[in-house]
From TrEMBL:
The keyword DNA-binding applies. InterPro entries: ArsR-like_HTH (IPR011991), HTH_MarR-typ (IPR000835), Tscrpt_reg_MarR-type_CS (IPR023187), WH-like_DNA-bd_sf (IPR036388), WH_DNA-bd_sf (IPR036390). It holds the Pfam family MarR_2. The keyword Cell membrane does not apply. Residues 19-151 form the HTH marR-type domain. The lineage of its organism: Bacteria, Pseudomonadati, Pseudomonadota, Alphaproteobacteria, Hyphomicrobiales. This is MarR family winged helix-turn-helix transcriptional regulator. Keywords: DNA-binding, Transcription, Transcription regulation.
Amino acid sequence: MTDDTGTTEALKTVDFSLEVHNAHLIRRAHQRATVMFQQMLGSHKLTPTQLAVLGTLDRSPDLPQNELSRRTAIDTATLSSMLRRLEAAGLIERVPSSPDQRVQLVRLSDQGREVTRPMIPISMQLSAALLDPVPAAERARFVELLTLVGADPDSAPQTKDKTK
């Protein structure tokens, strides 16, 4: 039966509780990580996503934008505007690919390396501190499970037994 607001009787019996709602809990964890990032690295005027891009370029220079998008899980439109801002700030450079001049490769500038490299160890400390509430013996498994939750469903390995 449906009432005048369109709510079915079945929906009225659903126990909605944010305390156990997975998406809400992930959002709260993300908020905590963002606050920690701002406390530890906010003076550098970079966002966590920008640092992810710069750190990826430090580890793997001269990436095409589509590959950088894939590695950082940032959609190409968002990445394109972010790269324009990072380039305007002098942190990255775009150079034509030798084999195909139509392809632009993205790399850190010298200034980008100077800014990024000191931030990486602090970012790793932040990553470890974020897991402080998780018992030490369970942290590796937690990260493994979080990786599964965040994986692209089209490229994630399928597990046969979802009860484990």
